[in-house]
Amino acid sequence: MKKIFLAVLVVGLFGLNAHAQDTVSNDTDFNKWQARFRVAGVIPSPGDDLDGADVDISTTVVPELDFTYFFTKHWAAELILATTKHDVEVGETDLGYVWLLPPTLNLQYHFYAGDFKPYVGAGVNYTIFYGEDSGDVVGMDYDNSVGFSFQAGIDYNLNDKWFINFDIKQLLLSTDVTVNTGDVMLPVDVDINPLIIGVGIGVKL
């Protein structure tokens, strides 16, 4: 009986050790780099920013590229790169268009459920405004600005290298704009706060 008990104990300890080694292997067996290419809809959510008038900023669809570096199997940092052009109107007044370049860095936590890998993230972005067109006014000047980013998404593995992705981000973004009407220089605080919804394909590097 004692020998049977010792044998069971040894087998049990061996099994626990094997499980622990498998867990360590799983925790360390991951690709440190991955890249995604998405097609993203950028949906601004401006408010009543110009003397109570509705500022209308157009929705656009753009390509988006991101690179992700994994510190561990669960924790990662993602750099998102894209540029987008938006038309701007206030009532019947055409304020032209402006290009936005908002590189965004998010810290992410990844979950694992078979071939599905959901994740959440948060971070910061720095938005550069360029290529302004003034429309019906004499001039438009946008200040570059810092904002915050919140993110959720999911990857689905097609195989060991390729995966598909769905991603949604909310940027909390505003800018100070100076409108030159020809008669006065009008300072305006414009909220943009775009919702960004993307789908695409990714590769583990």
UniProtKB/TrEMBL annotation:
Pfam family, one: OmpW
GTP-binding recorded as keyword: no
Signal peptide range: 1-20
Record-linked SUPFAM superfamilies: OMPA-like
Keyword line: Signal
GO cellular component, one term: outer membrane
Protein's GO biological process: transmembrane transport
PANTHER family: OUTER MEMBRANE PROTEIN W (PTHR36920:SF1), PTHR36920
Name assigned to this protein: Outer membrane protein
Lineage, highest ranks first: Bacteria, Pseudomonadati, Bacteroidota, Flavobacteriia, Flavobacteriales
